[in-house]
Design brief:
The protein is α/β, with parallel strands linked by helices. It has one domain: Rossmann fold. It is built from six helices and five strands. The protein has a five-stranded parallel β-sheet. Helix 1 (10-24) runs antiparallel to helix 2, helix 1 (10-24) packs parallel to helix 4 and helix 2 runs antiparallel to helix 3. It is globular and about 40 Å long.
């Protein structure tokens, strides 16, 4: 299983693919993912940029949530963007899991669908992944509560609908604090 969402430079694609492969095989750890993120950052013209930070944030999120992204788990990715992290989560939840990616920017919802259909159509066709446009602060109610919720953007407080949609014993990763603050 590999993802090919980053079409800019092969080393970026390689590092992202390797990170996702390790995630789906449950062989992730912050030391390993940090090295993979550094490989992304070492690409000419990328340096220590947002690409590095984004891959490292994704890796850290998957590491933090991995015990809740098991076979059959339900997960929510708020601010799903290109769909990359959502697909990694779906691979980790296995054939009986379900992951919803919610994004408020319509063009990003379409990009996530296109990316996933191009490289992992089975995830959409089987219903294991659903990308929706909406206000992530409201979550996306499903037939059962989520075992894992990832929120990519900071909130001043944790939105109550997300708390209500989290399963008992589930885990939510959300940066909390004032905008442009230390979360």
């Amino acid at each position: 299983m590999s993802l090919h969402f980053t079409n800019e430079l092969n080393p970026i694609r390689f590092a992202a693919d390797e990170m996702c492969q390790r995630c789906s095989n449950r062989q992730i750890g912050l030391r390993v993912t940090y090295r993979l993120a550094l490989r992304v950052a070492s690409v000419p013209h990328i340096k220590f940029s947002n690409n590095f930070l984004q891959y490292f944030k994704h890796a850290a999120a998957l590491e933090y949530l991995k015990n809740h992204l098991t076979e059959g788990a339900y997960a929510l990715d708020v601010g799903s963007g290109s769909g990359y992290l959502t697909v990694c989560m779906a691979l980790m939840t296995g054939s009986s899991g379900k992951v919803v990616g919610i994004e408020h920017i319509p063009q990003l919802v379409e990009l996530a669908k296109e990316n996933t259909m191009k490289h992992h159509a089975d995830l959409i066709n089987s219903g294991r992944i659903l990308f929706v446009e909406g206000d992530g602060r409201k979550g996306y109610p499903m037939e059962q509560k989520y075992d894992a919720i990832h929120v990519g953007a900071a909130a001043e407080t944790i939105p109550q609908p997300l708390i209500d949609q989290l399963a008992e014993g589930g885990r939510m990763l959300i940066p909390v604090g004032k905008e442009s603050g230390n979360q």
